[in-house]
Amino acid sequence: VEGRISFKKLYQDIEYKASPDPNTGDRIPDPFTIVGLSDMIEQSLAFGTIPVVNITNSTLAVAVAVSPDEGYDFIPEAIKYDMDSKPPIYKNRRFRFYVIAAAILLFAVGVGTTFCTTLLKRYSMHRNKYSLFSPTKSQKVKSIADQLKRVVGKTRFAIKDSPYARAAEWIYDDDPLQLLQGSENLIQRYLLVLFYFSTTENRPWKSCNPSVGIETEACNFTKLVRTFPEVYELVPWYRWLSGRHECDWAGVICDEFNQTRALELSGQQIFGTFPTDIAKMPYLQSLTFNLNEFYGTLPSELSQMKHLLNIELHYNLFTGRVPSEWYKAQALQRINFAGNFLTGTIPTEIGLLSSMKGYFMQENGLAGSLPTEIGKMTFLTFSRWGRNFLTGTLPTEFGSLGKVQEVWIHRNKLHGTLPREMVSMKELGDLRLQYNALSGTIPEEHYNMSQLRRWDLYDCNFTGTISTNIRNLVNLQTYRIRGNNFHGTIPKEMGELSNLATAWLQENNLTGMIPLEICTKRGPLGITTLQVDCDATNGIHEPLVECIPSCCTSCCDSVTGYCVRG
Description:
566 residues; alpha/beta; 15-stranded mixed sheet; 6-stranded parallel sheet; 7 helices; elongated; disordered N terminus
């Protein structure tokens, strides 16, 4: 027989030779004993017949043939086959399909989870960027916000788009420095940003605002160097809200530890109420904001700054009374509230300002008298009360101000005489009492105030003569006594005043000839202005004073006050 005997053919032959079961009719193979199976198969194959194999109900014998080409040494053998057995599970095609499908599914789930996690993180960061105060902000933003709220108060952040919220959002979103919670300059930087946003709700400042478009961080700061007339100079600096340290911003003055010590923003056209949160900057010593447009009442909060030495808010639009808290700020050395619309009186508590060196209240609407407690301001150096509505007399306690160099009380409604005690003001160099109702003679002791450079007594009601002791006023540069009732002659001792440049002697009852000693001082290096009553009196009478040509710069009518240049 060539080739292999198929299992199907063999099974059909066995079934064919089986005898029927007498009970069921099924064919049952004839039993026999397999003895010498190898020999029998070999012999049968040699004669071209299929051997009969003894088959039981539990087994099936399979005859396997091989190709004759494989040689006669090969011994075929029967293989026992179990019809109920199954192949190993790892060889099952369906099982292998399920395994591969499950692996693909797990891989897809892993990739999807990673992608979704990354996407959610980015979405969360995006929300945090534009929702600083939302409940879902990141821990970083929350910690910064909590730190800022502890400084300015939680309720300040409740109003959307308020300067408090905008400043905080700038710190987190737009600040190139990207400070973290606990950064040593976080609070300082935030308070300065808050100040800027609070003062630019209506319009920007005059100079060094945040850059727009192609503008760089650098700027030219228009610094006010003179008030009347206004004079500015350009100073190279850096813009507010730039990436530089806040100590580099225009008008911000810091110490070597980068702690803000002063803010100098004069003449910057700043409009609005004064932001009181600037008082939370603990190291500030000086605030200079003159010639702006701040309005409302003076902020009492600033008076509570422990290290504040200098406050300059002159020539703004403040109204109301000076808060009483300012008179308790004993560390203050300079207060300048001049040129506003302040009202009220000067309280006796002013004597508490024992460290005060400069007190400037001119050009307001103050009324009442000067309290005697002024004499307790023993360190007072500069004192200006001019152009108010003050009444009463000059306190004799002025004599206690031994360090004062400047007293301006002009254009008020003061009356009475000059206190002799003022002679004790040894350092007094500038005394302006013009346009008051002061009267009487000038105490002779006043002519010993050798430090006087400017002595303005014009348009009052003083009487008497000009003392020959005027020669003692060796530093006198300006002597103006116009519009009084002085009489007598002009003393030649005035010619000894080598520093005298301006003399207003008209509209008095002075008579006689201008001394030659005075006329010889006339010129660009000497007396440049000399005005006397050398014109016709009331236009028709002889002049009271005779002045040689080129001596007097103006000849005036003692009655009309009209002057003609000489």
